[in-house]
Amino acid sequence: MHEDLFRREMLEARKERWLGSIRLPISRLGWPMAALALLGLLALLALLGFGRYTRSEPVEGVLIAQAAPNGTSSMQAQLWVPDRTIAAIRPGTPAVLRYRAFPYQRYGLQHGRVVAIAAAASSPDQIHRRSGLRLDAPAWSVQVELDRQRIGTQALRAGMRVDAELQLEQRRLYEFVLAPLSNTDASPDTHRTGS
């Protein structure tokens, strides 16, 4: 029996000599790394909770003069919206506008809201005759009321070209990330900006 114990100790010593001793190094940076991981997780949660996702559609159009009942006129943007987007647009949908005559890098972005949507689409020929724009497919006319009628000291003029983005949908990032897991029967109007 004494021999067996000695033999077992000898085998263990020989095995340690052949394989070397296995030691698990404990990092001195253990606590700081755990704190950094926790801070990273908190930053991700804050981003998902407070961040927003906006789906928008780029469109183009022109400025048109709109007569007011009191005899004055104001400018509105007439935008041409493709079929794939028209169902998502409602009166009140926000628009971000860039006038080609006033580069946005210098004059900034302008804002407006949809006030009217045409009842029927117009053909590319009709659009070209009405606005001078050349489009490949039929599009819907959407009128946008402008927040400002002037850029700096200069008044806007009818016929100026406009590039715009209609903001179709706005959601928090966590809603966007979890959307595939949610009920697919939910109404698409649930997260609409203009509602």
TrEMBL record:
It is found in: Membrane. The keyword Cell membrane does not apply. It comes from the Bacteria. Its main location: membrane. Residues 79-167 form the AprE-like beta-barrel domain. Signal peptide: none annotated. GO terms for biological process: protein secretion. This is ABC antibiotic efflux pump, membrane fusion protein, HlyD subfamily. Belongs to the membrane fusion protein (MFP) (TC 8.A.1) family. Keywords: Membrane, Transmembrane, Transmembrane helix, Transport. PROSITE patterns: HLYD_FAMILY. It comes from Lysobacter antibioticus. It is a single-pass membrane protein. One of its GO terms (cellular component) is membrane.
